[in-house]
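Dear colleague,

Thank you for sharing your sequence with our group. We've completed the structure prediction you requested, and as agreed, I am returning the results in plain text so they can be pasted directly into your records. Please verify that the sequence below matches your submission; if there's any discrepancy, let me know and we will rerun it promptly.
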Amino acid sequence: MPLIVYWYLDQGLGCRFEKLFITPIRVRLIQSDLRTFFGKCREKLIKRLIKWAGGYTPTISKLENIEAEKDRIRKARITRIKSCTAFYGNGRFIQLFKPIPVLQATIDTYKEKLGAKAIGIHIRRTDHEEAIKFSPLEEFERVILQEIEANSQAVIYLATDDPQVETTLVSKFSPNRIITQKDKPFDRSNSEGIQAALIDFYCLANCCRIYGSVGSTFGMVAAKVYNIPIKVVSRNDFPGGVDKI
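Please find the predicted structure tokens below.
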């Protein structure tokens, strides 16, 4: 059955789907730019239609048992999927997303440079107060030193939304040790910034393990692509809820 995906652009996601991924077979995209007047009007119309349809169609927010839901989905003319968390626990769905060739070529270049045993580190900053408070830079520096002690040849891929963090760590541990995306734009409100974030995402996914930030799902989802381990770096006084190190 065909899948219709509503993809909207805003200040946090300023990029159309086709500039990131190859559109999967039997997927139809409806895209709106909420930064424009027309886009906002279109979104209101789509929300009204979805709300109207919701009263007449099954709505699923999380697929716990695919076999149990299969018959209900097949019998319904339309099934609405609405969720702000992982819809289906099986991580294989991520394999449906294929970066466009120009982005995949860049990812492959970094993958070759990193090798098979690179370590991924994701440091979330900007407006994420929880990550800034409970995953401070000094804790990541401690982790890096631990990895170097265990393996003097350790190579680390650093993904961060803060250029100052990138500069600090590269200066402290050298650009041969800390690999970052060259000339990366940090503005997520445009296509170039989101494309850069996607490259970071897949570079993390191609590492042998990831160290992530408290409260950020970026590294956690990257770890699901190839089912690699992830640990969340946090202070000792973090109240819990994640795998602290």
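Summary note from our side: Residues 10 and 17 are 13 Å apart (CA to CA).

Kind regards,
the structure core
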